[in-house]
Design a protein that fits this description.
The complex is a heterotrimer of chains A (366), B (310) and C (390). Chain A has 16 helices and 5 strands. In chain A, strand 3 and strand 4 form a beta hairpin. In chain A, helix 7 packs antiparallel against helix 12 and helix 8 packs antiparallel against helix 10. The two termini of chain A are 26 Å apart. Chain A has 2 domains: 113 residues, D-Maltodextrin-Binding Protein, domain 2 (3-Layer(aba) Sandwich); 201 residues, no CATH class. By secondary structure, chain A is α/β, with parallel strands linked by helices. Helices cover 35% and strands 29% of the residues of chain B. In chain B, the strands form 3 sheets. Chain B has a 6-stranded mixed β-sheet with strand order 6-7-8-3-9-10, with helices on both faces. In chain B, helix 3 crosses helix 4 and helix 3 runs parallel beside helix 5. The radius of gyration of chain B is 24 Å and the shape is elongated. Chain C contains 14 helices and 5 strands. Classes of the chains: A alpha/beta (366), B alpha/beta (310), C alpha/beta (390). The interface between A and C is large, with 96 and 100 residues. Strand 5 of chain A pairs parallel with strand 4 of chain C, so a sheet runs across the interface.
Chain lengths: 366, 310, 390
């Protein structure tokens, strides 16, 4: 049980961290291999030759501006290189540059953007020189290459919208719902037909509700401690940004924990088959909810919130994830309270069903 | 001779589980291996079945050396292990069929055998049940059915009645005797002396990895010095009477506790008659009187100085 | 074949649990491979990004020009300039980019000062980088015209700039295969990459569940008492697990055959099938190894999930390999999953040339190597266990 609610999330978080660490890191960029068909039109276009040389790396000698590693070659050879995946694309001058690629992808887009930029700039330069022949002497070229950044990032909320944090938030939510194992265990221990402890408990003159509440509290406390350690690991070791509203983060953890434990109790009370299947159901339901909350693939979350928003609100794991994200992102609390409110509704629903099942049950066979 | 074990030594690290152990089981016997828990019975059985390696010794079954590859020998052995070994995922019927199928390939024949075994252990009504739903006694019976379905010539049962209610136990014991009458030789281990006494034709008593005594139960009881034991209910006895009783001929020991006078006689007949005569002559009012013949426990006690059951 | 049959009864008893995994995972794979348009390709296929364009600068020609230019590459969503509503839009990703033109921007821009626009977006996303570059390109071009041409009106100037920016490089997609086939290959690669996850989970769990039963000491000893040869016993167990693995594989490829039809029997489709088949063998032997070290069904469940999710994450099942760091990929190289995914990607971009096939078969050999290596390791471990428990 400790495994699912604690070790497993920590392991997964570490894997996530490994997988995402390099995702948007420019260091991972390596030069793109391209081919250029070395024909007359290319050689006469001296400005392009200069431009391409400025951004190409010599073999074994790269600089920070280099985008490409260029092979100058014949047409037939270029086609062959492309077919063999030795280059990502080749440039062919035949009445203007043409890019030949085999597929679309990030690298191909970069080559195309470079060519677009080159053509657009040369068009601008030609037009200006026509208008103002002295422009070249006035430092036109230098000015053209000195781009001004007109954009300033202003966060719309408390934090930047950041898809990176969602898998980690979903991970905590997952740990909460795996806390369902604790709930499951408590219910099995309370039901006479499921365990000898249950049979004993059933003949004891104590009200079921009191027993149920007491055991739930015990389970919640244990789970909460685990969740907090997990949070600490994410925040302090993996440096995941949770914002800094300590109180609300605690509240979310507590509500998430209660949801998880009552969820497990609910499954245990409602599903009549053996413990193995109950555990299987908890695991697979949780995994499905993880997936729908964007743990494996963050876009799913948005596909759901735009196409079937109801599904998002019916998924407690998604609600926990969103609570954390709302805290991190919004500077107001509307969305947060909505999520927490829905979670509380889930808790009450789960507990009521569990209580009804527990109270009514007399046993046909033990 | 169906089983012959000589000079068997097996250790678990420092602990010597079998210490020059040896026995012989004849065809048609119910051979009982009796010993307290931890005396090495199961280890001995496991060695005989070539499940465990041993340091030295000789084991022959059906007159041939037993080894892990002695598949022809294994074909005629039936085994009922101390721990119930059945598949939780298979029904009662499927379990018996599985184990029977390890020995008997023919499907038709097997069907009859399984049905017979089911009837034999009285699990016919439960054949579609999964083991989880069976009570302890029924589970033991299933365990036995799995071991006997293929009609082995030699059946080895290792404590088949542990934690079984008296009713199931009697059924199991009766069944074993019935199998024996049908020609199966049986090696039976237990730490319940009553069981062994009840069904076994020959008994070996085991302690600390060795055989300390072997023979029929009469032979075993003759080995020891004490005879019958007489218990008399008497309200009040003073020491002088006790002294007198001790002085009577053929009396080995006298004890008085909680209104019970326990007198053990020496071997021989009529030893206790003198006691009763004496009590009558003194006019002491005696309540109930019980007389017990010596038990295997007494045998064990006299050889080892300890009770069989601790 | 008693053992073989009993093995399937054990599987049957565990089937509800295994089926949950198979069904859920199949759903994942089918859903994802159909929903997923490769995020790397948004630019090329010119998917329009949803954005909010807020102009607080009144009737500015410059702002209108920028809006018109961006309109060619983005869909405008109207959302009032109010914090909560804009936040909601970003939160639920109704829009991916918000651009605000502040009051007085045009005037100060024309006066030559470097005034800034405010934007909000998910940092580092492809759509953010794309829109950033479009906006800056537009404004910079206008700036150049502004500095070097004196006698143009603003309208003329903007028209010139737009004319320049309309220049586009012609791109020829030299694919020997048709367009539909290419998208099918990509979808199929996605499907087969996700298959890695499902396959690892169902196989480790299934084989684990079976072997926990058969490795139970009491049952094992009881079976060893029978005249069934040890070699036969092991053979039946291996055969049983192999059959189970193949059955699981068949169920999973069946869905791909239903979805992609005859494509699955084209050259590429067959390569995908072959690759996944070899991967199944490797995972089977891995499952066998795991099954021989664990003690309970719960442990099987735990290990199945860690290995399935963990190796999938670092090997590029969920996050494309191209986006993973070099260190991660080096670590991932020690798992068969990495090579399997790599091969799927190679198959997807394959053009038929004999030397193209070489790395594909090379990778398959590596996966086979894994299968054999892990199997040998299992044999060594079980041997050691047997002698030490003697």
């Amino acid at each position: 049980m400790i495994f699912w609610t604690f070790l497993f999330p920590i392991l997964l978080a570490t894997f996530f961290n490994l997988a995402f660490a390099n995702l948007f890191n420019a260091d991972s960029f390596s030069e793109i291999k391209i081919g250029i068909i070395d024909n007359e039109e290319f050689r006469e276009n001296t400005s392009f030759v200069t431009a391409i040389q400025a951004v190409s790396a010599e073999k074994g000698n790269t600089n920070e501006n280099s985008l490409f590693v260029v092979t100058y070659t014949s047409k037939a050879e270029a086609a062959k290189l492309l077919a063999e995946n030795k280059v990502e694309g080749y440039i062919h001058f035949d009445g203007g540059p043409e890019l030949v690629v085999k597929q679309s992808g990030l690298n191909q887009t970069i080559i195309k953007s470079f060519l677009d930029d080159y053509q657009q700039l040369s068009s601008t330069i030609t037009a200006i020189i026509k208008e103002n022949p002295a422009a070249l002497q006035q430092g036109l070229l230098a000015n053209v290459f000195e781009r001004v950044d007109y954009l300033q990032e202003t966060p719309m909320g408390r934090g930047q919208p950041d898809a990176m944090v969602i898998p980690f938030y979903a991970l905590i939510a997952m740990a909460c719902l795996y806390g369902g194992f604790f709930g499951l265990k408590e219910i099995v221990a309370l039901q006479a037909d499921l365990s000898p402890e249950g049979a004993r408990v059933n003949v004891a003159p104590i009200h079921k509700l009191r027993l149920f509440t007491a055991s739930m509290f015990a389970a919640i406390t244990v789970l909460l401690v685990e969740i907090l350690i997990l949070l600490a690991y994410l925040i302090f070791v993996l440096k995941i940004n949770f914002g800094n509203q300590f109180g609300f983060i605690m509240l979310t953890s507590i509500v998430g924990t209660v949801t998880g434990v009552t969820f497990g109790a609910f499954i245990a009370a409602v599903v009549k088959t053996g413990e193995g299947l109950k555990i299987g159901i908890i695991i697979s339901l949780t995994m499905t909810m993880c997936f729908l909350s964007g743990m494996m693939y963050d876009k799913i979350k948005y596909i759901i919130s735009s196409r079937v928003p109801l599904l998002g609100y019916l998924n407690p794991l998604n609600l926990i994830t969103d609570s954390f994200y709302a805290l991190y992102f919004y500077d107001s609390y509307g969305q947060y309270y909505l999520n927490i409110g829905l979670l509380c509704a889930f808790c009450i629903f789960f507990s009521s069903v569990v209580y009804l099942v527990l109270r009514r049950r007399t046993y046909a066979s033990l | 001779m169906l089983i012959k074990v000589e000079d068997l030594v097996k250790s678990y690290g420092e602990l010597r589980a079998l210490d020059h152990f040896g026995l012989e089981v004849m065809e048609g016997e119910i051979f009982g291996l009796l010993g307290p828990n931890g005396s090495g019975k199961t280890t001995a059985i496991n060695c005989m079945l070539a499940l465990l390696k041993y340091e030295q010794g000789l084991i022959e079954v059906f007159g041939k050396p037993m080894s892990p590859d002695a598949y022809e020998l294994k074909r005629d052995i039936g085994v009922v292990m101390q721990n119930v070994a059945v598949f939780q995922e298979l029904t009662v019927y499927e379990n018996i069929d599985y184990f029977c199928g390890l020995y008997v390939a023919d499907k038709r024949l097997r069907k009859d055998l399984v049905e017979e075994a089911l009837a034999f252990v009285g699990l016919k009504d439960f054949q579609k049940f999964y083991p989880k739903k069976l009570s302890g006694g029924l589970l033991r019976r299933l365990n036995i059915a799995c071991g006997i379905a293929h009609k082995p010539k030699l059946l080895i049962l290792d404590e088949p009645t542990v934690a079984v209610d008296p009713q199931s136990r009697n059924k199991i014991l009766e069944g074993i005797q019935k199998l024996n009458q049908g020609g199966t030789t049986i090696l039976y281990t237990s730490h319940y002396m009553e069981e062994v006494e009840q069904i076994c034709t020959r008994i070996a008593i085991m302690d600390k990895g060795r055989i300390i005594a072997m023979g029929t139960k009469e032979e075993l009881k003759n080995m020891i010095s004490s005879g019958e034991k007489l218990t008399v209910e008497i309200l009040d006895v003073d020491d002088s009477v006790l002294e007198k009783v001790k002085g009577l001929p053929g009396i080995a020991s006298v004890e008085y506790k909680e209104n019970l006078l326990v007198v053990k006689s020496q071997k021989g007949k009529n030893n206790l008659v003198a006691l009763i005569d004496y009590l009558k002559s003194t006019g002491i009012a005696a309540g109930r009187i019980y007389s017990e013949p010596p038990t295997l426990n007494d045998v064990f006690l006299e050889i080892t100085g300890r009770e069989l059951r601790d | 074949m008693q053992v073989y049959k009993a093995l399937f009864k054990v599987i049957k008893k565990n089937l509800p649990m295994l089926m949950i995994y198979v069904v859920v995972f199949l759903f994942f794979a089918i859903f994802l491979s159909n929903v997923n348009t490769n995020p790397l390709e948004e630019d090329f296929t010119e998917t329009k990004v949803n954005m909010v364009f807020i102009n607080n600068d009144g009737d500015s020609l410059l702002a209108a020009g920028l809006e018109g230019y961006l309109g060619q590459n983005a869909n405008f969503v109207f959302i009032p300039d109010e914090s909560k509503q804009l936040q909601d839009a970003l939160f639920f990703k109704e829009v991916e980019y918000i651009l605000k033109i502040p009051k007085g921007f045009t005037a100060s821009f024309l006066a030559g000062s470097e005034t800034e626009l405010t934007k909000a977006a998910a940092p580092g996303s492809t759509s953010e980088l794309y829109l950033n570059s479009l906006i800056n390109k537009y404004l910079n071009t206008v700036r150049i015209y502004l500095s070097y041409t004196a006698n143009l009106t603003i309208e003329e100037l903007l028209a010139r700039a737009e004319e320049d920016l309309a220049q586009k490089t012609t791109v020829r997609l030299e694919a020997l295969t048709g367009k539909t086939e290419t998208t099918k290959s990509e979808k199929c690669a996605y499907y087969y990459n996700y298959l890695a996850y499902s396959l690892i989970a169902t196989l480790t769990l299934g084989v684990g569940a079976v072997m926990v039963v058969f490795n139970n000491l009491d049952l094992k000893r009881r079976t060893l008492c029978s005249p069934v040869k040890l070699r036969d016993l092991n053979l039946q167990l291996i055969l049983g697990n192999l059959s189970y693995g193949l059955a699981a594989w068949l169920v999973m490829i069946l869905a791909s055959i239903i979805m992609y039809g005859s494509y699955m029997f084209s050259g590429k489709g067959l390569l995908f099938l072959l690759n996944s088949f070899i991967f199944t063998l490797a995972i089977l032997s891995l499952s066998f190894l795991i099954a021989n070290v664990i003690k309970s069904l719960n442990a099987a469940n735990a290990v199945a999930n860690v290995i399935a999710l963990g190796s999938s994450f670092i090997s590029g099942v969920f996050v494309p390999q191209a986006l993973l760091g070099k260190t991660v990929l080096t670590i991932a190289g020690f798992t068969p999953t990495y090579w399997y995914v790599k091969t799927n990607n190679l198959i997807a971009e394959l053009v038929y040339q004999p030397h193209d096939l070489k790395p594909i078969f090379g990778n398959m050999l590596i996966v086979i190597g894994f299968a054999i290596g892990i199997l040998l390791l299992t044999v060594v471990i079980t041997k050691q266990k047997r002698t030490s428990s003697g």
